[in-house]
Amino acid sequence: MILLDGKSVSKKRNLELKDKIKDAINLYKRAPKLAIILVGNNPASLSYVKGKKKACELVGIINEMHHLDENVSELDLKALIVNLNQDDTVDGILLQLPIPKHLDEDLLIDLISKDKDADGFHVVNQGYLYQKKKTIYPATPKGIMTLLDTYDINVKGMNAVIIGRSNIVGFPVARLLMDQGATITVCHSKTKDVGFHTRNADIVVVAAGRPHMLTKDMVREGAVVIDVGVNRVDGKLIGDADFEDLREICSYITPVPGGVGPMTIHSLLENTFELYMNHVKK
To answer: Which of 5, 91, 117, 119 is catalytic?
Structure first.
């Protein structure tokens, strides 16, 4: 079994990105800027934002934080997004999810300019992804594909099973794997027998948000397992895959933490830099 070490891969790639940003700042006379909007005090969101802020500082991206009250009105939040869209010094905008239920998540995400969409969630950018056009890819699927590429895992001809069908992970990673030549099956809460599909898979991407739902009896020997899940159980972070059991039979597996998470943050930094380059070259 080989550990897909997202922590070490992202660290190396972040240092390479830092050099690129340094060169770009010298040439274009300003640093990239990412605006992060955080609504409320969700502990997980606070932790994620802290990690993103630290990563931005490491590579030379200015991090502009907008921490809003949980009860902020949708009108005020819309006004903030419009202002950030119009601010020429802002290259990327990220609305940290989840947001309180009184706010329309889809409306607010699509209000962010597609040209400042650091998360790759805008409906136009997702449409471009599904049509194989150049666009900003959602950070987690992009990070997964980068990790597979780093470890020379060629998915062409593989049977790939994705557990989860969100627009953030499930659907876009299915599209990207398909574009690389994999044959795709997407399982979800209505799938009658998930194990039937995963036992025939060469690669399983699990993003269900259920602790240890992917067990040893559901995976064939030699499979690749990508665990996107982050669940806190008894004060400990665990994934959607039962890591200790699966490591005995997998060819490759991501740990939680230290697998997909660091790659997601790295991809967000890459997206921000790409948006910045698009802006300064205009």
So the answer is: 119
